[in-house]
Specification:
The protein has 692 residues and is an alpha/beta fold. The strands form 13 sheets. It has a five-stranded parallel β-sheet, covered by helices on one side. The termini are far apart. The model has no long low-confidence stretch (mean pLDDT 88). Bound molecules: flavin-adenine dinucleotide.
Length: 692
Amino acid sequence: MNPVRVVVVGGGFAAVQFAKTLRSKLRASECDILLFSRENHMVFHPLLADVAGASINADAAAAPLRQMLPGVECRTERVQRIDLSSSEIEFDDGNGALTRLHYDHVVVACGAESNLGIIPGMTDHAFAFKVMRDAIELRQQIVRQMESAEAATDSNLRRWHLSFIIVGAGFSGVEVAGEINELVRSSTRFYRNFRKEDVIVSLVHSQDQILPEVAPKLREFARKKMEKAGITMLLNTRAVAATHEGVELNDGRMLTGATVVCTIGTAISPIVQALDVPKERGRIRTTPEMRIEGQTNAWAIGDCAYIINAFDNKPAAPTGQFAERQGRQAALNVVRILKAEPTQPFRFKALGQLCSIGGYQAVAEMLGVHISGFVAWLLWRGVYLFKLPTWSRRIKVGLDWSWDVLFPRDLSFLNTDTTQQATHAYYRPGDFIHRQGELARVFSIIEEGQVEVLQNSPTADTKVVAVLGQGDFFGEGALLGNRPHETSIRARSAVRLRQVGSALFSQIASSFTPFRELLVRAVTRGSGDFWRRLPISKAMLEGESIASFLDPLPAQLLTKETTFADAINALNESPTGTLLVLDEKQRLWGTLDRGDLYQIIARIAVTSAETRGDITHLKLSDLLIPNSIYVALEDSALVASAAMLDHAITWLPVVKSKADPRPVGLIRGEKISKRMIERMAQSQPPRAQVAS
Ligand SMILES: Cc1cc2nc3c(=O)[nH]c(=O)nc-3n(C[C@H](O)[C@H](O)[C@H](O)COP(=O)(O)OP(=O)(O)OC[C@H]3O[C@@H](n4cnc5c(N)ncnc54)[C@H](O)[C@@H]3O)c2cc1C
């Protein structure tokens, strides 16, 4: 008889324990076990904070799966889909082809993913704290900030480099805050330009107490100890946005700091999202024995599963402790099924909680006993040393910890050159992206939102001279000319940018001729060059308000929900052929003119008839790109002219104000040119009459 094939998707606590237990119960001739995990190692999450704080090396907290699981076929291909109806998995074979594999039983144990997208700007500016790469990058960042602080001559900048903000004060937030605080403060003696007092570590938490999972007495102990160690607690406070400067709080304050760590926000893994099975807040619902509801040969365990614990009839907590026990018991249930024996429901009494808070201190709740301080810290280390999956890891971590007690923490870091990187950045309305006179560090492309270009002059105040929108770019002039920025750039709305570091930009610009030509053309493009040649018209338009050129709004306003068929009719009826599209709050969402119409048709024409379907019923929100460029009543006519010149367009929507983007009318280039010509004619001295 062929051996039964059991496929495990995942390589964490639950999957490893499942595969280990099953292998110990069934011989290879009875059962083939294939474990698919994206990484070839299991991450021991409780020690990630120690990796970030440089008290252990990264490899000590990651155990290679194939060495841990003899007799299990370990594969690193990413599983793309599980087809429950045909009992097959589909995975990427690494060469671009999808391979299908039949199973007799499948176990979904792919955990949860971090999701920084829940707070604007976090994805761009914060470190997640879930996988090994996060911990390694965070450690690099901490040491890099200390080096930058040492070099900074400005005291505010030095403080910014030495300010660390941790969002979320659950177990991982508290542990990582404690480790950062310990690493930075204990290392100040190796630097000459800053002291312990310059270091700021802030823990931002939405509730009134940290560590909501542990007993009130222990929480209070942890808070007091951490505050004494220099950590600032911002309780009952929420982070609402993250930017290059730091974190904006719900009370309007801006907490500045170069390093933001976000420990909140989880997302369901895409493979689980794609499964059409009963779910509870995204997690897969299982029967008490841990089979996926409605399935006979599919199981779900660990953080991706919603399992009721028969011990207290409550959903099992998403922790390593539970994931391991679920893995073991699910394996025993598979064995029972293969032997035609009755299965058993998942039942487990949690053993307790342990949390290290830094400075050789911890809090622990073990079998109902509360312990805190140094003894709890020793217990924490002892328990996790014992729980590490292999003896080689235990010895490695043990040696690292002993080293950490006797010697200072390691401050070496592999210098990753930020000028070689391409990153994302998020700015709130009003934030400066760069200021006039600063050295150029990045080339930026606007992915979302609008920015304004400002110019200082020795004789007058700073003035907005142009606006840029989605798809526009800036920074190329200063980078190509190797000179400081000639203008400042400020976010007009919430802005998301794609940024390319100066060294990477130079490489692309020098080796890729079409890109260089595009940039050179952009430097001498539209408004910049035009005003240089026509300074009189610039002076004239600066003093003209937009209101004096305002045309009324089109008679018909479209919405994002308007269908393509209705939009075509509206364009046909429009005398000017220009229409505005509003969102649900009546704010400007986009524009539509005949040119856009042709572009939409051209785009649709290249898609296959099957995907195209009946396009007349498609909504504008599916067809148009939002965030068109616009000007506000408070802008000058110069800004409107510059925007039209830069974008080679002849009209622009006008909104009430930058803060209130509800449209109030349109402005046309033609009207501005006419007024300019009239003014110029008036300013000319009358010509002398020529005698006939
Ligand atoms: C910083 C931190 C500290 C923690 N501290 C503790 C603690 O002290 N005590 C405690 O009990 N719990 C702790 N936890 C929680 C604990 O780590 C999780 O509950 C536990 O890891 C869940 O195990 P799991 O097997 O379900 O998922 P995970 O351990 O997350 O493993 C999921 C695996 O699936 C793989 N995978 C995902 N999708 C695919 C795919 N499509 N194809 C192939 N492979 C895939 C991933 O690569 C990963 O290896 C901590 C968590 C974090 C982040």
